[in-house]
What does this fold into?
Amino acid sequence: MQDFADAFRLAFALLVQLDPNLVEIVALSLQVTLSAVALACAIGFPAGAALAAAKFPGRGAVIVILNTMMSLPPVVIGLLVYMLVSNAGPLGFMQLLYTPGAMIMAQTILVTPLVAALGRQVLADFHDEYDETFRSMAVPWRKQVAALLWDARYSLLTVALAGFGRAVAEVGAVIIVGGNIAHVTRVMTTAIALETSRGDLALALALGIVLLVVAVTINAAVMVLRASAQRLAYV
Amino acid sequence: MTSETRSSGCGSDIRQLTVRGLCHDIAGKRVLENIDLSLQSQGVTAIMGANGAGKSILIRILHGLLRPSGGTVSWGGRAMTRDMLRSQAFVPQSPVLLRRSVAANLKFALTLRRRRDISTRLDALLALADLADKADQPARTLSGGEQQRLALARALATDPKVLFLDEVTASLDPANTLAIETVIRRVSDDGTRVLLVSHDLGQGKRVADDVVFLHRGRLAEHSPAKTFFSQPVSAEARGYCEGRIVL
Ligand SMILES: Nc1ncnc2c1ncn2[C@@H]1O[C@H](COP(=O)(O)OP(=O)(O)O)[C@@H](O)[C@H]1O
Ligand SMILES: [Mg+2]
It folds into this structure.
């Protein structure tokens, strides 16, 4: 019991002092995950918009695949990206294995189906609502997609936050392709796994608290977004 | 009617509507039956009739939003094209406003058709809708009457030659109704062809030049407004005008 109390005391000390090691790990985590989520949204939202607005053969199958990919276990994605970027893999020449680049790639693959699938649902509702108006006004399709994305901005931001939540808390994929190398690829989740197994509970706890704060912040942001969307009648 | 159109040299005026043998089925049910109709290229036509008569379906077909099951619709003697669609505008019963400010809704429509004078036109449209002081307000927080005025202004932003209105004043108070009717008369005087769906006899009397009366999917009567409201020819229209319930 005494040990745990000490661990908490030390953890708070690390947080209060902004321990450089801790800050480095948190910064890398955020950098990797924010990049991955930005990439995932850049790919996933237009793809979701296309799936929502365009009718083409095989569309139903694509949606089923997308929804299935949403629940792919992160370790499987880690394995996949490992095989892609390892020296023998097709992207081996890029020398990405055990770099933040590989971690961004893995998290992008993890999050893209999620933001595409959830984004598609949001945008399909908007499309149903706007379709007749856009056809009546003869709005060119590029402008239609842009208008859908813009008008759904609040809902899509919520989707992006959900993607961020999934990526930042994920450990399986980034540990496989990143390797948890100190000062290079060590992020919050992999550091917690390592420090806990080594018995250094203080750092693990401090990082755990940061993750918790991140999760609370995301949920608060979602609530604020929803409230302001409601106030503006944008829901 | 035909001679007038010809004499004004507008044989291919895309504001002139001709409908031949129009039929429409929804889910195996006939909702429009063999409609023949020829309208002049000017004025305000009221499409009247009871709920469910087929008015909304008819104007969606005329505007090209729905493809009819049978028959033809032509404007200026030609079938509807995308170019023609660009010269028409439609305000539905419950208009869908963008999730943006009042001004942004108008700008969206303005930039569809023109590149210059956007801000001058924007100010004019805001004034027309009497929404100048609400330009920055989110459009969906407007009152029902204000939303309807904005929807009408947005439709006019594309400078339509033909304007369709579907029961746009059905849920509005007299002041808002009057404001909208004034705008309708004004754009009609400026040469825009107006087709207005309404079940309000008073409105028909106030704004219409001629009346198309639908009864259970059939064209029961097409008469000049004066005739229609004083001595309607068809029994259905007579019943409707006298306030009897005709089923
Ligand atoms: N989507 C639909 N599915 C089934 N029936 C419909 C649909 N839309 C319209 N109808 C039917 O078509 C008829 C005409 O409808 P509508 O044109 O909306 O009438 P109104 O004259 O009141 O505008 C009605 O009997 C209505 O029930
Ligand atoms: Mg109707």
Q: What stands out?
A: The pocket of magnesium ion (ligand 2) is lined by residues B 55-56, 93, 166-167 (CB under 6 Å).
